[in-house]
Amino acid sequence: MTLITTIHSYAGGVAKSATARDLSAALVLLGQRVLLIDADHQADLSVSLGVDIDEQYASADDSFGQTIGPAVLGTGPLPAPREVYGIELIPSSITLYNLEKELKADVSMVVGLRYALDDYRAGGQYDHILIDTNPTLGDMATLALLAADRVLLPIPPNRKGLRAGNFIKSRVEKGHYQRLNPGLSVLPPVITQAPNTNLARQYAAEINELFGGTLGLIKQRPGLYPLAMERGIPVPLLDSSDGRAEVMSVAARFLEVVQLSAQPAPGGAKRGA
Ligand SMILES: Nc1ncnc2c1ncn2[C@@H]1O[C@H](COP(=O)(O)OP(=O)(O)OP(=O)(O)O)[C@@H](O)[C@H]1O
Ligand SMILES: [Mg+2]
To answer: What is the CA radius of gyration of the chain?
Structure first.
């Protein structure tokens, strides 16, 4: 079975792209087959894996052709993913910004990514498809949430993080997303960029309570994470000690939770996340 997880928050800079990159790399190290989709025109995820489409291609059309754009618009197939550190990546480009305008002009296209991934879902060549989004509540977020089975929220332990996590949880669970995409559910979040302070510990406890648990906590590591971005290397491959261990632990917990949620509970109801 292929499980599609969208990493999402309307809040900027909360480590969506770092989580997408490092969780993908960790899942590959754990023997999983991973397709990673960069659906953010900022392309931070692609660049932080050493793939800069806008540098590689002179023409905007050629750059756009390497992204999910044409498949969402129905003008072409998904591009062949490129392999980076064992992850299969469909990268992004600044030209993906044009997709936002097209989605505004024709709302029916918000199901375009879901349909484009149908073949991958049916083909079963991946265990996991992860989608990184830009910080928005707009059409690009809807596109990525309608394509997904699960939403993973990176939440820093502070007021901004907690507000965003709380809002998106209730928007997914009480808003229209689950009506349009009934299989969609919110995973226990990852606590990200956590400083070693009492206030951060209080917020971490609140996040834990709100979601009934988390996938783990990633500490604020001001040396390691900028270096991972600079070198284009995921944290679990760059660091061999605590930074790696906490990402691997989140990935192992992620696998536990999604496998639990895929098993039918006694009596036929779903259990877990
Ligand atoms: N655990 C961490 N410790 C220190 N810095 C971190 C950590 N996680 C992420 N960062 C840094 O924080 C910044 C924001 O991270 P990232 O780009 O992953 O966030 P984002 O949510 O994807 O941002 P955007 O909303 O712009 O897409 C980056 O410079 C990243 O290197
Ligand atoms: Mg990002």
So the answer is: 18
